[in-house]
Amino acid sequence: MFEYIVIGILIIIIPISTLYFYEKGKKQGAKSFFELIANFGYTSKVKTFKSLNKDVPKGGIVFVGDSITQDYNVYEHFPGKLIYNRGIGGDTTEGLLKRMDVSIHELKPSVVILLMGTNDFALLNATPEEVFERMNRIVNEIKNHHPETKILLESIYPVNETIDPTTVLPRTNQMIDQLNSMLKTVEGVTYIDLSSKLKDTEGRFNRLYTLEGLHVSPEGYQLITHELMRYLS
Asked: What's the rounded Cα separation, in Å, for the pair 157 and 215?
C-alpha cells in the first residue's frame, strides 16, 4: 500500500515540477525543456568553478571546452602537473564568453588549452565564420588579461555520422574542416592539429578513437594526451 501512495505522489509532483521549471526556463530565455536542463548544468558548473577557484593555487594549466574536455580525465593523464579542467558539457563559444572569469581569469593560468566550437553547429546553427569570430574574441580576451599565458588552440575534432547520426548531426566534417582552416590563422596562439590524427582513411572520426561518432574513447584520449604532452613538457 505504501508503495502505491509514493507512486501516486510522484505522479502528481513530477508533472507539476516539470511544468514549473519549464515555465521558469522560458522566462529566462530557454526555448525547450532540454535547453533548460543544459542551462541548469551550465549554471551549476559555473558556481562550482567559482567556489573552487577561491582556494586553488594559481598559475597552472587550464583545459577549457565542452563535454569532450569535461570527460577528459586530465588529472590522471598529466600526473605531477598543476592542472584544472574547466569543461562544461553542451557548452558553446557563446557560453564560454560568459564564463571567462571563472574558467580562466581567476586561475591566472600559465597555459590555456582551448577546444570549443563543435556544439555551435548543433545548438546555435552557427556558420564556421560565426564560430571563428567568437573564437577570436575568446583568444583576444585571454591575451589581453594574461599576456604571458601560452595559448594552445586545438583543432575541432572530426565526427563520424555513420556510427550514431542522431548524436552527430547536423555537424559535418565539411563544416569542421572549414572552421579548422580558419583557426590555423589565429594569431598569438599555438595551433595543434589533432583532427588529422583522429581521422580514418575516409576523413571521419576513427572508430577506434570515438565512442559514438562525436565523443572521445579512452584510446582517443590516450592519443590526444600523447600529442599534447609534447607542448607541455
From this structure: 9
Give the integer Cα–Cα distance in Å for 35 and 94: 14
Rounded Cα distance, 77 and 220, in Å: 12
The torsion of the CA quartet 157, 58, 103, 127, rounded to 10 degrees, works out to -40
Q: Which residue has 509514493 as its cell numbers?
A: 6
Q: What is the CATH number of domain 56-232?
A: 3.40.50.1110
What letter does residue 107 receive in the DSSP assignment? Answer: G
- Pairwise CA distance, residues 57 & 107, whole Å: 8
What are the structural domain ranges in the chain? 56-232
Q: What is the pLDDT of residues 88-140, one digit of tens each?
A: 999 999 999 999 999 999 999 999 999 999 999 999 999 999 999 999 999 99
What b/e string do you get for 30-45 counting C-beta neighbours within 10 Å, with b at 16 or more?
A: beeeebbebbebbeeb
**In this predicted model, what pLDDT tens digit does every residue of 52-79 receive, in sequence order?**
999 999 999 999 999 999 999 999 999 9
The separation between the first and the last C-alpha atoms of the chain, rounded to the nearest angstrom, is 64
Name which of 88, 63, 93 is nearest 77 in CA terms: 63
Going by the DSSP 8-state scheme, the letter that residue 206 receives in this structure is P
